[in-house]
Amino acid sequence: MSYIVTTLSNLIQQTAFFNMTFGNLVMILVACVFLYLAIAKGYEPLLLVPIAFGMLLVNIYPDIMEEGGLLHYFYLLDEWAILPSLIFMGVGAQTDFSPLISNPKSFLLGAAAQFGIFAAYFGAILLGFNDKAAAAISIIGGADGPTSIFLATKLGQTALLGPIAVAAYSYMSLVPIIQPPIMKALTTEEERKIKMGLLRPVSQLEKILFPIIVTIVVCMILPTTAPLVGMLMLGNLFKESGVVRQLADTAANAMMYIVVILLGTSVGACTSAEAFLNLNTIKIVVLGLIAFAFGTAAGVLLGKLMCKLTHGKINPLIGSAGVSAVPMAARVSQKVGAEADPTNFLLMHAMGPNVAGVIGTAVAAGTFMAVFGVF
Fold this sequence. Notes:
By secondary structure, this protein is mainly α. 73% of the residues lie in helices and 0% in strands. It has helices spanning 2-14, 16-19, 22-39, 45-60, 70-79, 82-94, 98-102, 106-112, 115-126, 131-138, 145-154, 161-173, 175-186, 189-192, 204-221, 226-241, 245-252, 254-268, 273-276, 279-309, 328-340, 347-371. The chain is globular, with a radius of gyration of 22 Å. The N and C termini lie far apart (63 Å). The model has no long low-confidence stretch (mean pLDDT 90).
């Protein structure tokens, strides 16, 4: 009889219920909310489903993130900057840079949207974060999850990685909700109705030379951007060269989806109750939202200035796409423009600032690394 009692007691003590804390219950509820948003509402399910499930697992079974646990090894790929770099390769293989090549002024709009990053940096300093932590937090303003993870690990801010990554991916997912009110508040209906002319055709030679030239120029100036910009441009060269279609297809599809699974679950697994439920997390989430809002506003305001300078040839809405959430931000520009005039087609014009924003956010991360002497 005592054997049975002892066995049952051991089994009970090994259940998750016996070791569950109130914080774990809160995080499980948050994970379920994320799953609802992803599955029922369709908010970027490719990102939110693995992140939410990783969050669920680590708060039921914390040892899964300890050395020897499955997600610990997924996380090491984040810490070594492997997964963020591979994500950039996949994005490059999926992306058409023609709108940016056709309209180089888009680079300015992509650069303007990075203003939110530096606004958040100084805001984080004021809230008591050290300079490296502030830099890692500020990249959330670029709405770029892989770059946020990359910079946080490079600057040694792994303790903040969970809140930073979740905030970055959450704001990426919520682009269609966050951006439109800001865009409408800063533009008039007449501006939103502006129709832009057709983009000039881009030759195949230009498409091939673009990733090569960008890699040489950007990586020569900021070598620290090579893991991100280099992989982004390599993926694009796979696509545009036309001679390695198998590599382009693998990078854009099979590899990309595998990396998203590994990255998403490992990011979610960084959100144990002990690491996530604290005052710093609240500060990071608020700073990320402020940064994202500032970046969106800066892009729209520069778009308004360019609209005036070109005598109404540029729709200011495309400036909001300067954040690096590709292609979500460009789709939002299209949606808001179409609400003002159903015949307005801004998607391809908005893709220029959008892909410029990807490069801009990587450059901002490389700048911080150079400033702090991190390679």
